[in-house]
Amino acid sequence: MSKRKQETDYAAELENSFARWEELFTKGGSDPFWTDGADLNLVRGHIIYYKQQLEKQENSLFGLPDIYYRETPPEVDYNYMARPDEIRENAQNVMETINADENLHFIHEQYPTLSEQQIKQWHITAVINYADNLRRAIREDDLVIMRRYKDPTRFLESFEAAAKQIQMPESCQKINGSLTACDVENDDVEEEYEDEQCENEEIDLPEEKPQESFQLKLF
């Protein structure tokens, strides 16, 4: 026997959305592709939607909940990013760490000696792009991309893994328990490296973040 679909608690959803908006506005988010401004306006749309649903509820004996009367946040500039100076400072620090990495220097030195097959199989271009993309983001003041480099650990591990592969091409090394690019016969690993390569391509964002399905129907 199927269970009756549980009704949405729009007052609770409204509380959560207000809290989420406040957190995004003051602390920022972690979306790898969208600005905080885009996410803030999306959450604002949620708030408007939940207020509308509360208005439509038939049971109004006790009136609307207090959270309904909280002022709806204003639209913010699409390019708004919380704590921009902190993002810039961290990106500069990470860039210095990457620039000083001996494994990355080794990869650049050996790159001209590698065959096209080796470059493709070991995903050398994607690994090099980790550094190049951050360098470009700093130059262009792209805060969204700079925010992706909050923790340089995985990038440094990728440099180490690629350098090991170049040094010992016949063996499959593991760095800190993580598979390297040489494990290409594993479909999951191949897909992971393809995703990383795509992540490091320059992306032109649309002017507005797509709305969720229920918003497209209502607004």
Overview of this protein structure:
There is one protein chain. Helix content is 58%, strand content 2%. The protein has 219 residues and is an all-alpha fold. The chain folds into two domains: 10-82, no CATH class; 84-199, no CATH class. Strands 1-2 form a two-stranded antiparallel ribbon. It is elongated. The chain starts with 9 loop residues before the first helix and ends with a helix. The model is unreliable at 172-207 and 212-219 (pLDDT under 50).
User: How many alpha or pi helices?
Assistant: 10
In quaternary terms, these chains amount to: single chain
Indicate the percent of residues in helices.
Answer: 55-70%
Helix/sheet category:
mainly alpha
Strand order of the largest sheet: 1-2
Q: Can you tell me the overall shape?
A: elongated
Number of strands: 2
What number of structural domains do the residues give?
Answer: 2
Relative strand content: under 5%
Low-confidence stretches: 172-207, 212-219
Biggest pleated-sheet summary: 2 strands, antiparallel
In round numbers, the mean pLDDT is: 81
Ends distance = 36 Å
The radius of gyration over CA amounts to: 23 Å
> What's the order of the H and E elements?
HHHHHHHHEEHH
